[in-house]
Design goal:
mainly alpha
Length: about 120
């Protein structure tokens, strides 16, 4: 039984190492962050090939850790203005003008992504 436990812990440790190594390749600023637009490449480099919908679900989990179903405009701005290819203030203002729900003043990201895919 102890051997099974040790093997399981070793396997989990190896998976964690592979994930960390994959993220390090894309962590260009060496600050433990990656551009959200590179998540697909990172996941695929690990040998997983999710559909675009599954990939969006993964990104949603990363961005919306509290599982609220939306992001505050400030949160989205923070994510989109960091990394190697940050959005400019003008680009953020343009995006937020169509992304922010006028009634609740939040970004329902699944609705926004669907709207962007249809345009």
């Amino acid at each position: 039984m102890a051997d099974d436990q040790e093997r399981a812990e070793l396997m989990v440790s190896e998976v964690h190492k592979r994930i960390n190594n994959a993220f390090e390749v894309f962590d260009h600023d060496l600050n433990k962050t990656v551009d959200v637009r590179e998540i697909g490449a990172i996941v695929r480099s690990l040998g997983c090939f999710p559909t675009e919908a599954e990939l969006l679900d993964i990104i949603d989990e990363v961005l919306d850790q509290q599982k609220k179903g939306y992001l505050e405009p400030e949160e989205l701005t923070k994510y989109m203005t960091q990394g190697d290819e940050p959005f400019t203030q003008e680009e953020m203002e343009e995006m937020l003008s169509s992304a922010v729900d006028p009634n609740s003043n939040v970004v329902y990201y699944k609705d926004f992504v669907n709207m962007m895919l249809l345009d």
